[in-house]
Design a protein that fits this description.
With 274 residues, the protein is α+β, with helices and mostly antiparallel strands. It has eleven helices and eight strands. It is globular and about 60 Å long.
């Protein structure tokens, strides 16, 4: 519950100086995973990470950076411009000296942070070296996903709408979409979000980050919550549901001049695969 998280944040913020290095990153990660913004707490955590960065290993550093990216803190005048902003400016330099410690998970978190820092916020300061960024992008791109039963049923309904669905499409930014379809001349991503994508019925931080970054790179996105899809037992109802969702997204993006997947170099391509 938001009120509970606010209460916890209020209790923790004055005490972050007592936290262990792991405790600092755990606090940031917990609020980011819950997709709950707590500017005072996250700024305090980030300020402690700056002051004690030599105590934080690579895992703690990347988890903290990922958390700030999820909650959009410390970039370019958005929420949290104190400790979070200082952390974001210095993070890359610290990580270069710890590159050998980075796990696959940490590299993936680094890539998502880079998308936020360099692409969403258009900031070049605070980035680690180009070779390390390339390693992170390769790790993120190598992540594999599995098709679920609900994803298959959505694909059948998309095919019935003659959307020419492509499954498991890798975007230039590294994310994979469940489906890429064509609707009224617009390329649309379709994501089928199962229970692990939510806390209750609120999108988790990881889910919210993916939605935001996919859209930021120029791919309109239709997200289908599992409970809405499961509530449509009739095939005709599911096709009608998808038609309405695709129509809404295509109409709004078509009015903006169409869409295309933007690569890490900022250029737009007509094909979303890469």
């Amino acid at each position: 519950a938001p009120a509970l998280f606010d209460s916890i944040a209020g209790e923790l913020a004055p005490r972050v100086g007592e936290f262990s290095p792991q405790g600092l990153s755990n606090a940031a990660w917990a609020f980011a995973t819950a997709n709950h913004t707590a500017p005072s707490l996250l700024d305090a955590v980030a300020a402690q990470a700056v002051a004690r960065h030599t105590e934080l290993d690579a895992r703690c550093l990347t988890a903290t950076a990922w958390s700030l990216a999820v909650l959009d803190m410390g970039g370019n005048g958005e929420r949290g411009t104190g400790g979070a902003a200082r952390f974001a400016r210095r993070f890359g330099g610290w990580l270069d000296s710890r590159a050998a410690e980075l796990s696959h998970e940490s590299l993936c978190q680094l890539h998502q942070w880079r998308l936020w820092r360099a692409e969403e916020r258009r900031r070049s300061d605070g980035l680690p070296s180009a070779p390390l960024l390339a390693q992170a992008a390769a790790a993120f791109g190598a992540t594999r996903t599995r098709q679920s039963e609900i994803q298959s049923s959505v694909g059948e309904a998309l095919a019935a709408l003659d959307t020419w669905p492509e499954e498991e499409v890798r975007l230039p930014c590294g994310y994979t979409l469940d489906w890429l379809v064509q609707w009224r001349g617009v390329s649309l991503g379709v994501e089928v979000d199962g229970p692990r994508h939510f806390l209750g019925r609120r999108p988790s931080g990881a889910t919210a980050l993916k939605r935001r970054q996919v859209r930021a790179f120029g791919t309109p996105l239709v997200s289908i919550p599992y409970w809405e899809w499961d509530g449509l037992r009739d095939g005709g109802a599911r096709v009608a549901f998808l038609r309405r969702a695709l129509e809404r997204e295509a109409t709004s993006k078509g009015a903006e001049g169409g869409s295309g997947a933007r690569g890490l170099d900022g250029r737009t391509s007509s094909a979303a695969g890469g």
